[in-house]
Structure formats: structure tokens, C-alpha cells
Amino acid sequence: MLPGFLLVFAHLGKLTAQISILGGFVGNTNAWYQLLSDTHVGRVWVYRAIISCLLLASILIIRREQLHGSFLRISAGFAALYLVLGPLGGHAAGAGALSWTLVLNIAHVLAVAIWMGALPLWVLTVRAFANGQSGLSCSQLEDALTRFSWLAIGAMCTIVLSGALLADTYINNAGDLLGTLYGGLLVAKFCILAVVLLLANGVRRGFLPQLRVAGNLAMASRLAARHVAMEFVAAIGVLGCAAWLGQTTPALHDASFWWLPFRWALDAAWIVTTQRPWILTAAACLAVGLLTTTFGRHRTLRQSGLFVFVTSAVALAWILAVKAYPDSYRRSESPYLTASIAEGRALFQAHCIHCHGGGGLGDGPLASSLPKIPANLTQPHTALHTVGDVYWWLTHGIQESGMPGFGKVLSTSERWDLINFLRAFSQGFEGRLLSSRVVSGQAWLGAPNFYIEGSAEISELKNYRGGSNVLLVFLDRDERSAERIRRLVAGYPRLQSLRTAVLLVVPMVGVTPPSDLPFPVLGSSSKEIWDAYELLSRTASNRGAPDRLGMDWARAEFLIDRFGYVRARWIPEEDRSGWDDLDRLFPELVQLNAEPQLKPSPDDHVH
Hints:
With 607 residues, this protein is mainly alpha-helical. Among the domains are: 262-323; 338-428, Orthogonal Bundle (Cytochrome Bc1 Complex, Chain D, domain 2), CATH 1.10.760; 434-594, Glutaredoxin, CATH 3.40.30.10. Helices cover 54% and strands 5% of the residues. Strands 5-4-3-6-7 form a 5-stranded mixed sheet, sandwiched between helices. α5 (98-130) runs antiparallel to α6 (138-170), α11 packs antiparallel against α12 and α13 (338-351) crosses α18. Residues 1-5 have low confidence and may be disordered.
């Protein structure tokens, strides 16, 4: 009966604590009523309160009338329903992949309830057996505890697997795990769970085998019960961490502070060819050590495996370590928009070309006077640093290279605009291999997003994702532009049948397209859109002038797949055939439409 009362009071106490965090609710009856009746979370809490009262009532009836069988199953059903409703009012209700996240949360909660609910009964049964009060024989106790052991193993596997998958939903990198409160609680929960597993393994390997042989079972039983009692206390700690996690902002939505002077980056270490054999060797030894520690039959072999595992883990961590900063895992605060890229481009020209050069090659007029030659921003090594690293450098400078900090010169948003530009600028050189042909299975160049004016249905480029490919057309005042528009209009029905939208961008002064076109024409924002996509228009034979950031094309067209990636590009001044005849474009669209989604759509922010 006491657990039932505790459940009701715990439910009300937790509700009060959660609501008080929101502010303005304590003592405000109207606010409480609105929260509980007009919000999803409030309604879930009302349902859970009703279920908890029904559960308490059923417990009282069962205890008073000494009922068993179906009545116990009804109480268990109320308890399960109470637990199942919990995730509906937590983080899972706001997750993107709602269905599978809810299933994982529910499985996790039920597994924890089964495991923790059985532990007190385990302790009481074994203690009664040790005191000669259980009435069970050794074989009966062994059979009961063996069945519970297998049940606990299944519950623990469910807890660990569902917990790992849920953690992956809210944890994106090491900064989320070690640099946020949410991640710290997850680490604490994992450590306590590891203690639980060690205790449970000791009981399973030590006590259960003794039930099969004669010996001092009373002393062994008391020792086993003590271990399980400690396991139950640790389980309460796990439950406490879980409850705290439920009230904590998920790591993906929280600011990360990296407190270590290094971080682990496989990409940065792997690019150094001399380190690759060491990485592979350490990884192989790590696997061998883990297998030996887990499945070794002899204690000496397991101890040797543990030594190999720990040594290999330390060696691998040392090899993969690179320098880090407090902002290394900081998230971008400016969306990857063409307006942001264009603003960043203007900031680069105003503040950075004196050292990095007009073309970003590190050959500016002040470069020779610096202690270290400025980085060549056209090289792919810039992608090996996190945006947080770059943000730190822009804010505080790089003392050893002579780069000054711009924390007092540029605002936070301006620094993020500059980082967006640097990403687009670097990827433009990586994208030189793009042509008018779609390469199957190669989706990597995310299309910068922008807002679409004059369209009542689609307000921004990324809204086409999941539905249509996009042919992004940039035109000049060249007389061939009028002919291109006519061909696009004539072929538009066929393009629509191939799930492809057309967006016409006219960034050049003096071009006035017809007003009755069947597809949107971007006018006032076209200059900033071109300033961004111009960076992605370099080709294998023309990487651009060394003293300018962009290109000097009169026309360009980009084919963006329905998942948000630039898959092909046509520069008429280099390839006069290309898609000039739309019949050459249609097979590329058929190929794109036949492809499944190769990877998640590009993020709204750089990482």
C-alpha cells in the first residue's frame, strides 16, 4: 500500500517541480488550469494522475480483500499504463522521429520498471531463505532465481540498447556528451549502470552456482542479498539521473563548453598517412582486448585482455587527439543561408584579404610580415576544423600565427556569417569536379538555402526537399538568356512530370524576364543568391582568378536533388552543349528520381 501512496505523492511533487520551473504558476490557479487543460504536457500529466489514483485504489482493494490472479494483473496494467504515458510528456514528444523515439522511450521505461520492481522481492526472498523462513528448497530457489536472472538480462539488454539509441538522438558529438549538463548526466547514469552490472554479474557467477552444491548457503545468501541491495541502491541512482535528464535541456539544444585542451578527431588524424598504420593497429588490439576480457575462460587471460584493452584505448586516444578550445563544439547561430554567405563574403573582403589575399590563397600584402604564412583557404584542410574552432580563432585570434582576434570588431552574427562564407568558399574548390552529368551515389555538396519571393506555395528552397528536384538557373543580359527562358517554358510540363521545379535567378542589372512565366523569378534577393552560388561554380578547367573570390560567368545552372544536394552543374561558357537542349537534362532527372535518399538532408547550420 505504501508504494501506491508514494506513487501518487511523487507524481504530484514532480508535477509541481516541473511547473514551478516555468515560472508564474505557483499560486496562480488560472495559469495552472490553462497549463493542465490547454497544453499537451498538461493533459498527459492529468491522465497520469488519474491512472495513479486508479492504481492506488486497486492496491487498496487487493490488500483489503486479499485478492489475487486477475486483480493483480489489472494493477500491473495500471502501472504499465502510467509508465507508458510518461514519454508522451517528455523530450520524446518533441523529437523529429516521433514514432520510433516514443517506442524506444516506452521500452526503456518498462524494462527499468521490470528490473527495479523485481530487485526488492529478490532481496526479501533470499534473506528469508537464509533465515530458514522461505519454505523453499535449494532447487526451487535456484529455479526461481535463474528465471529472474534471465529476465533481468533481457531487461538490461533492452535498457542498454534503447538507452544508447536514445542518447544518439540527443547527443551529436563529444562536446554534447562531455560539455553539457545533459551529457554529464548520461555519463553518470552509464557509470552507475556499470556498477550495477558488476554487482549483478558477481551474484550470478558467485551465488547461483552455490545453490547446486552443499555448503554454507546461509552466509552466501546473506552476502548475495547484500550485493543485490547495493544493486537496488545503485538502480535508484540510475533512476534519479533519468528523472533529472527528463527536466534537462537535451544536449542538441544546449550550449556546449569544452573543458579539455584536446578533442578526438579521426578525420584529422587519418589524413596524416604515417598515422594510419598506428590507428589500425591500436583499433585491432582494442578489439582483441575486449573479446579476451569478455570471453576469456581463465582469470589470467581475462586480466591480460583487460591490460591490452586499456593500453590500446589510451594509445588510440593519444593518436586521435588534436588541439581544442572552449568553443570547439559550439554550434552555429546563423543558418546556412545565401544572405549569410553573401554578408560573410563582404566581411572577408573588408577584414581578411590583407593577410589571406583577394583569392583566399594566403598571399595578401601583409602575409610576409606575419610569423606564419596565413592559411590557404582554398585547400580542403579547412574542413577538418569544427566551426567552433574557427569561431574561437575569429574571436580570440591565433597568437602563434599573428592572426588578430575580431571579437571586439565583429558581432557574434557577423562572425558566424564569415564562417558560413568560409564553408561555401572551401566547398567550391572541392566541387570543381561537378559537371552537367549526375554521378550516381555522390551526394555531398549541400545547397545553400534562400527565401523565395513571389511564390505563394514554397517560401524557401529547402521546402522543396522530399518532393521536387530544383533546377536553379542564373541568367545574364546576354541575348541567349531570352532563348533559354523560352526553352525552359516549353519544357516546363516535361520538367514537372519529372518532379523538377525551376527557379529563375536574375542577378545582373538590366535583365527583365517576362512577367507571365510559369515558375518563380527571384529579383531583389538575386544578387546575394548569386554571391553564394558563384562560389560553387568553379570547374575542373577553371578554378578562378587568384586575386578574386568568385567567378565571372554570364550564366550558370545548378541541379539540386529532392534531398537538398547539388548533384550537377552546367556552365554554358565552358560546355556549350550541356543542357542547352533539355532532352540532355531529362535522363539526369530520371536517374535522380530513381535514387533513394543517400544521406540525411543538409543541416540548417554548419558543423
